[in-house]
Amino acid sequence: MKNFLLEQQQKAQKIAILTQFIQSNPEARELKRAMAVKMALQGEPYSKITNLLDMHKSSISIWKQKFEALSLDGIRLIYQGAKSYLTPKQKAETITWLKTRNYWDIDELVTYLSEKHGVIYQSKQSYYDLLSIAEISWKKSQKKNPNSDADLVKKKREEILDFLNKNQAEIEAGRLVVFFVDECHLLGDDVCGYVWGPTNTRV
C-alpha cells in the first residue's frame, strides 16, 4: 500500500512539473512533447493522444521514457552544439533509415536527426527534402482496400445477424448489450486522407 501511495505521489509531482512547464509557453515541439507525456501519465489512451497531438505512439513512449529518466531535460530541444547540416555519410545513413521504415512521420525524423546526428533544421523544407531523396512523398491514400474480400464481408455480416437473431429477446429486454466490429474493416475505406508513403506505391 505504501509503495502504491508513493508511486501516486511521484506521478502527481511529475504531472505538476509538466503542467508548470506547459504553462510557461515553451517552444512548440517541447510543448507537444510535454503534453503527450502529461496525458500518458494521466492514463489517457495512446490512441487518443495520437489523434489529438498528431504524434505516433512510438514517439509518445520515447518522450515518456526520456522524461522519466531526465525530467524536463529529457524532452527539451538540444540547441547547444546542434548543427544545421548533415555530412554525406550522415545523410546516407538517414536515407537508409527512412527506406527501412514502414511508417513515416516528420516528428520522428526530427527526433532521429537531433539524437543521432545532433542536427536540427530551422525549416521543415529540409526534412521534406530528405523524405523526397528517400522517395517518400505526401500522397492521398486510396479509398478502396485492394485486398478486400467480398466473401469474407458476407460471412462476417451473416455472423452478426445470426447472433442478433438468436439473442433478440435478451437484447430487447435490456439484459444483453452487444458490441460488434462490423464488416467495414474488411472492405477498407476506413482511412482516407493524406499520408507519407513510398513514391511509387499506393498506400
What does this protein look like?
The protein folds into three domains: 73 residues, no CATH class; 53 residues, no CATH class; 38 residues, no CATH class. Helix 1 runs antiparallel to helix 2, helix 2 runs antiparallel to helix 3 and helix 2 packs across helix 4. The chain has a two-stranded antiparallel sheet. By secondary structure, the chain is mainly alpha-helical. Helix content is 58%, strand content 5%. It starts with a helix and ends in a 5-residue tail after the last strand.
The averaged pLDDT comes out at 82
Oligomer designation = single chain
What does the radius of gyration come to?
A: 23 Å
What is the H-and-E element order?
A: HHHHHHHEHHHE
Give, in spatial order, the strands making up the sheet with the most strands.
Answer: 1-2
What is the number of E strands? 2
Count helical runs: 10
Task: Tell me about the largest β-sheet.
Answer: 2 strands, antiparallel
Structural class: mainly alpha
Blueprint (SSEs and pairs):
Layout: H1 2-23, H2 28-41, H3 46-53, H4 57-70, H5 88-99, H6 106-117, H7 124-133, E1 136-140, H8 150-166, H9 168-172, H10 184-187, E2 194-198
Antiparallel strand pairs: 1-2
Helix pairs in contact: 1-2, 2-3, 2-4
Supply the key terms.
203 residues, 3 domains, two-stranded antiparallel ribbon
Summarize the structure.
With 203 residues, the chain is mainly alpha-helical. The chain has 10 helices and 2 strands; from the N terminus they run H-H-H-H-H-H-H-E-H-H-H-E. It folds into 3 domains: 2-74, no CATH class; 88-140, no CATH class; 150-187, no CATH class.
